[in-house]
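Inverse folding, one chain.
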């Protein structure tokens, strides 16, 4: 599935820009979180570690939070400034990605196609997305499940 080039992404602290402008040079490795659910808080530490391990590959590692900027900063704290962080209070990006369950992990190629997506916290599925990213970027696949990571869970409804 290809996303619309004019899909708007709102980064924290600056103006929204169309998806096509974010994909001019790099793919996107996106973790989608809902700050109003326990499930997203359970996976936050693991998601941050995963994005850290992907930092440096030819993908923009980023967080997409289904809240406004103030609520995103409250949920993420200093993590907000450690990664490119987008807000999606109306969940328009979540809808465009056809995500039904959050947390989610998506790989969007520079041409706007969704190459791989995992919904809920299933380490094997998140690993599949990470492998798609690393295959496309000639990077090393991060370790997805480490001691202290949560057990697999289904997640919460993406559209509230």
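Residues assigned per position:
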């Amino acid at each position: 599935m290809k996303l619309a080039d004019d899909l708007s992404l709102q980064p924290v602290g600056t103006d929204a820009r169309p998806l096509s402008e974010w994909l001019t040079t790099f793919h996107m490795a996106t973790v989608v979180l809902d700050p109003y659910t326990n499930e997203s808080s359970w996976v936050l530490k693991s998601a941050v570690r995963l994005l850290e391990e992907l930092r440096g590959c030819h993908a923009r590692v980023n967080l997409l939070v289904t809240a406004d900027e103030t609520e995103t900063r409250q949920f993420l704290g200093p993590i907000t400034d450690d990664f490119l962080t987008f807000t999606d209070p109306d969940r328009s990006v979540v809808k465009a990605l056809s995500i039904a369950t959050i947390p989610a992990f998506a790989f969007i190629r520079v041409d706007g196609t969704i190459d791989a997506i995992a919904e809920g916290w299933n380490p094997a599925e998140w690993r599949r997305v990470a492998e798609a990213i690393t295959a496309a970027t000639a990077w090393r696949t991060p370790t997805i499940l480490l001691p202290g990571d949560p057990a697999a869970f289904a997640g919460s409804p993406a559209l509230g």
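The first helix runs from residue 19 to 22. The CA atoms of residues 75 and 127 lie 25 Å apart.
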